[in-house]
Write a structure and sequence with these properties.
Shape: globular
Distance between the termini: 24 Å
Helix content: 40-55%
Strand content: 5-15%
Number of helices: 8
CATH superfamily: NAD(P)-binding Rossmann-like Domain
Radius of gyration: 17 Å
Largest sheet: 7 strands, parallel
CATH class: Alpha Beta
Length: about 270
């Protein structure tokens, strides 16, 4: 998977899956724009990508704000004139509270980042790709977009919505040479998953980790770099005519039919 000469734009690139993807794109030869609302985290990821021998830059943005989204698109175009690969990845976990008790403001905050943020990314990046005659998009959904996740109504609703946006956007731009797909991670070794473990069991979050890992056919969480590899595949010519669909990377958990109280990603 050679991305030499291509430009990759990664939101939520300051940590976890986004950081791993930024570095993976750089190692494959792409120039990378790292977007995150945490300026220091974005700069750190860009520095790590630059260390791979390519050119990487960072921009601070809140993906739920249209002005910020237009800003990160403009920054990328000003730097390199095009966007070949867009990893529409930024997301937050919210809180773990049963639906009857879930706070409305907390719900709105998760939907704003995890669903509206994905829409705004599509809304402002797709026209660029259509105008340049091609491009690839990967949205970060989740296995929570395929199943219910108890205590996470906002996150689950948003990730189901991401899959709907993926399918619709793919149809809308298919004849323009633009492909849109999604990746659905299960539990991944990241800060977000540690946060969820702590919310599930504040007294013993490690017990949640152990139970989840034991319940996966592979016996372990997925590593961020493994999600990044799937993203690069979906952005590469190797995935050819693949559009409007998703790839599940969860160590076989969904295939085994096991649904647990912590089926969440990143």
């Amino acid at each position: 998977m050679d991305f030499t000469g291509k430009v990759a734009l990664v939101t939520g690139g300051g940590g976890g899956i986004g950081r791993a993807a930024s570095i993976a794109f750089a190692r494959a030869g792409a120039r990378v724009m790292v977007v995150d609302r945490d300026a220091n985290a974005a700069q750190d990821s860009a520095a790590a990508a630059n260390a791979c021998g390519t050119e990487a830059r960072s921009v601070t943005a809140d993906v739920a704000r249209a002005a910020d989204v237009r800003g990160y698109v403009k920054a990328t175009l000003d730097a390199w004139g095009r966007i070949d690969c867009f990893f529409n990845n930024a997301g937050i976990e919210g809180v773990v509270v049963p639906t009857p008790e879930y706070d409305e403001d907390a719900f709105d905050a998760v939907i704003a980042v995890n669903l509206k943020g994905v829409f705004l990314g599509l809304r402002h990046v797709l026209p660029v790709m259509v105008n340049q005659g091609g491009g690839t998009v990967v949205n970060t959904a989740s296995t929570a977009g395929l199943f219910g996740a108890p205590g996470m109504p906002a996150y689950t609703a948003a990730k189901h919505g991401v899959l709907g946006l993926t399918k619709t956007a793919a149809i809308d731009v298919a004849r323009a040479g633009v492909r849109v797909n999604a990746v659905c991670p299960g539990p991944v070794e990241t800060r977000m998953m540690r946060s969820l473990e702590s919310m599930r069991n504040p007294a013993d979050p490690e017990a949640v980790h152990t139970a989840l890992a034991a319940g996966m056919p592979t016996g372990r969480y997925t590593m961020p770099e493994e999600i990044a590899n799937a993203v690069l595949f979906l952005c590469s010519d190797l995935s050819g005519n693949l559009t409007g669909t998703h790839i599940v990377v969860d160590g076989g958990r969904s295939g085994s039919g096991g649904v647990s109280a912590a089926r969440t990603n990143r």
